[in-house]
Specification:
The protein is mainly alpha-helical. It is 73% helix and 0% strand. It has one domain. The chain is globular, with a radius of gyration of 19 Å.
C-alpha cells in the first residue's frame, strides 16, 4: 500500500512540476500566451451564442449547419483552411494523440474536395482521397470539426506541451484557430442576418 501511495505522490509531484514549467514557458512566450487566451475566449463567445440561439443539444452542429454556407464564402476563412491543410492531421488527446477517423475524413475532405488547391498544387494520395469520400457534410463543417478537436485537446485534454516540437506545432494550430474564431465573431451579425 505504501509503495502505491509513494508512486502516486511521485506522479502528482511530476505533474505539478510540469504545470509550473509550462506556465513559466508561456510567461516567457507572451505571444503564445495571448494567442491561447484569445482562442479560448473566442470559442467561449461562440459557444455562448449557439447555446442561447440553438437551445438543446448539438448547438455547435446547428451553428455550422445554419451559418456554414455564409462563412465558407469568405476568402479569409478558405485561406485559413488552406493553411491548416498544409499541416499533418490533428490528433486527439483521448486517442493517444492520433487523428480519429472523423478528423481524418474532415481533413482530407478539405484537402481534396473543397477546391482549396489548384491542380498540381498538392500531391494526391489515393488513401487520403478514399477517406475524404467518407466525409458526409460540407467544407465548413469539416473545418469546424478540426478546430473543435484542437480546442478540445488544449482546453479539455492534455494541456501541458513540454516537448518543444509539439509546443511549436500547438502554437501554430492555436494561431490558426484564433484567426478563424476572430473571423467567425467579426462576421456573426452578418451570418445571422443571412439566415
Amino acid at each position: 500500500m505504501e509503495i502505491v501511495i509513494f508512486a502516486l505522490n511521485q506522479k502528482t509531484i511530476m505533474v505539478s512540476y510540469e504545470i509550473r514549467d509550462f506556465i513559466d514557458r508561456l510567461n516567457v512566450d507572451l505571444d503564445n500566451k495571448e494567442i491561447r487566451r484569445r482562442f479560448h475566449e473566442n470559442y467561449e463567445w461562440l459557444e455562448s451564442y449557439w447555446k442561447r440561439k440553438f437551445v438543446g443539444n448539438n448547438g455547435n452542429q446547428q451553428f455550422c449547419n445554419n451559418h456554414g454556407e455564409f462563412y465558407w464564402q469568405i476568402d479569409d476563412i478558405k485561406n485559413i483552411a488552406k493553411e491548416l491543410m498544409k499541416l499533418r492531421p490533428v490528433g486527439a488527446s483521448n486517442n493517444n494523440f492520433e487523428p480519429t477517423p472523423n478528423i481524418l475524413r474532415a481533413t482530407y475532405f478539405l484537402k481534396y474536395r473543397s477546391s482549396l488547391f489548384e491542380d498540381g498544387e498538392i500531391e494526391s494520395n489515393e488513401n487520403e482521397i478514399e477517406q475524404a469520400d467518407y466525409w458526409t457534410s460540407d467544407s465548413f463543417n469539416a473545418l469546424f470539426a478540426i478546430i473543435k478537436q484542437i480546442r478540445d485537446n488544449l482546453f479539455h485534454g492534455r494541456k501541458i506541451d513540454l516537448d518543444i516540437n509539439q509546443y511549436e506545432r500547438n502554437k501554430d494550430l492555436v494561431q490558426i484557430c484564433a484567426k478563424l474564431t476572430d473571423l467567425l465573431l467579426e462576421n456573426l451579425i452578418e451570418a445571422e442576418a443571412n439566415l
